[in-house]
Design goal:
- With 151 residues, the chain is mainly alpha-helical.
- It has one domain (4-149).
- It is built from 5 helices and no strands.
- The protein has helices at 4-29, 38-70, 73-100, 109-138, 143-149.
- Helix 3 packs antiparallel against helix 4.
- The chain starts with a helix and ends with a helix.
Length: 151
């Protein structure tokens, strides 16, 4: 029988896989030797935006908020911290979208390319940490014990 924990982790993994697929495509479009392809970059940006919005809603409503409301105190604090970090990186991404929506990408390629590549790397790192922490939040053992054990 599949547990609620397994279902939530599987859904988290699905959201992350969709986002990481687009980020991987973005990494290729933003490679140091790549020529700017504004149409593909804009298409990828909006596709990633839709996926990240759905992912954030899922995390907040189905993972973090229930733990904040009724989880053990150490897990509630960690869920609050993860939610704040999620909001911060989400805000950073939305600011990027606002800045770049009408940007002439080829004209600004020398600054655009490394800035977006760096942002995508931060999003990937955040998602990896989020996956690990979410698993910790959903396990039966207290978070402090798992962190202390390095698992």
């Amino acid at each position: 029988m599949t547990s609620q924990r397994d279902i939530l982790l599987a859904r988290l993994d699905e959201h992350q896989a969709k986002a990481l697929e687009i980020i991987k495509r973005g990494d290729m479009l933003l490679a140091p030797v790549a020529e700017p392809d504004p149409l593909l970059l804009v298409q990828s940006r909006w596709e990633l935006t839709r996926i990240l919005v759905a992912y954030q809603a899922f995390k907040h409503h189905e993972l973090f908020n229930p733990i904040i409301r009724s989880g053990a105190p150490d897990k509630a604090r960690l869920a609050e911290q993860m939610k704040r970090e999620c909001v911060a990186i989400g805000d950073e991404y939305r600011e990027h979208v606002a800045r770049c929506t009408n940007l002439d990408i080829p004209k600004h390629w020398d600054s655009y390319r490394p800035a977006v590549a760096k942002l995508l790397a931060r999003i990937k790192a955040h998602m990896a940490r989020e996956r690990w922490v979410t698993e910790s939040l959903l396990l039966g053992q207290p978070v402090a014990e798992r962190v202390a054990a390095g698992r």
